[in-house]
Amino acid sequence: MSGSMRRSLQPTQVAQVVQLIQDGTSMRAVARRFAVSVSVVSRAWRRYQETGQYIRRRGGGHRRATTQQQDRYLLPLCKEEQEEHCQSPAK
Fold first, then answer.
1. Which of 37, 52, 73, 86 has a CA between 20 and 30 Å from the CA of residue 67?
2. Can you tell me the distance from the alpha carbon of 51 to that of 62, in angstroms, rounded to the nearest whole number?
3. Tens of pLDDT along 4-19?
4. pLDDT at residue 1 tops 50
């Protein structure tokens, strides 16, 4: 595998991948054609079979620890705390 391989496909490319696989092209050949790994093609094909859609699911990334309202409350407190610690000691 080279470092130049992409990790995902655009929806139009996924549609082409699906068509090629349905026409009997191997996943390996499809992967070479789009310069992606076989696993990218496999995931796109499986996602299409499960959902019938070409678009990727929304990421399940890291959830926020605080709400935006909590952030608005905490941010000034943090800045105030930082200022107290950064002041030079009294002589």
1. 86
2. 24
3. 677 788 889 999 999 9
4. no
12, exposed or middle or buried, with CB in 10 Å at 0-12, 13-18, 19+? exposed
CA-based R_g, the chain, Å: 24
Which residue do the tokens 């070409």 mark?
A: 54
What is this structure's pTM?
0.58
Range 21-42 average pLDDT:
95
Amino acid at 66: T
Residue given tokens 């390996």 in the structure block: 28
Q: How far apart are CA 64 and CA 67, in angstroms?
A: 7
